[in-house]
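Can anyone check this?
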Amino acid sequence: MQVSEVMHQGVTMAQIGDSFQRVANLMKKNDIGIVPIYKNERPVGIVTDRDIVVSGLAHGHRPDEPISLAMTHKVISVYEDQHINEAIHLMEENQISRLLVLDRGERPVGVLSLQDLAREMPDDHTKAEVLSEIKRS
């Protein structure tokens, strides 16, 4: 099964100079928990709702400060035509629960989450096994 068959289609993006507040509002408006951060046309980071709280607010950053202060600089992505097993391996290897999905032209087309994968697992035992591998400490 390909990533494109499981992922959430569409990506809400932000720019590196956008504020914490603007990105948080994008997340609220679109009911999402992850936003890729771009500088011009290139992805330079990822920010999650957890990043905003843990790396932003908990460190005393103001809502008007740039989101770049809280983003993860390493963008881990998968191509939409890759097999989901490759995506699972990336998640396990990097201990992450969401991947940015790109087309072969390097354009963002979606997000693949643990929840997306869990919906496709054949049984509860397989779900538990895969999810525990990805989220191991």
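Reply from J.R.: I decoded it. The longest helix spans residues 20-30.
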